Amino acid sequence: MTLFLQAMAPPETSVELLRSRWQELLRRVAEAARRAGRDPAEIRIVAVSKGHPPELVELAVQAGIRCFGENYAQEMHRKANHLRQRGYEVEWHFIGHVQTNKVKLIAPIAALIHGVDSQHVAEAFNRWGERHGVIVPLLLQVNTSGEASKHGCQPEALFQLAEAVLRLPSVHLLGLMTIPAPAEAQRVRQEFRLLRNLRGELQQRYGSSPEDFPHLSMGMSADYELAVEEGATLLRIGTALFGERPSKQVVVTLSHERLP
Prior knowledge:
TIM Barrel, 8-stranded parallel sheet, 10 strands, globular, two-stranded antiparallel ribbon, single chain
């Protein structure tokens, strides 16, 4: 008997459908920015393609999308190769939790790493950068919800971690990232506001200009308008663009051997 998982084919998705969803996202982001007195040009959408096949990402590129986020190093590597072989130039962000043994897969591809939450991981990227003569851009992930299941450093530990990262010559700290608890809008807004305030204190303590630590990566499909209102510069949006990720089904193969 053989058991294995097989991804079920996603519903039919066209370039036109993706383009329509993308334009709607841009419209709603712009409206949220204007409500907050912000310039919509300050905000960028990272299209989260986690769990979707490379062919769907290719359709998204044809729809005009150029920035994608992935949670798993090997999946990002596979999709990046798929698009490169077809002549597409896109920007990849790594938005998942980083394991140090994956740094060598992540660093050559990702234009920005969102999920660094320890000195150990930052030092691994620094070593990679020193070996290859490049500066690795990253964000520090903060656990704003206090949930034990969430990755990220605790808010009270952020500045000690930031000081350690700022001493590393081959990484460049560009801001902060969070994943809020699934909760009512007011609770989510409070978490976004906390991250914004922490970024403000980071700028006051260690910044030499208002342009230092420019990014707040916060806001996903369910709460991105709140995130824009609270200062997000990077929105990680998947479901609202691509739909639900393909489900898995178990395939069972039974042999027809005659029992003794």
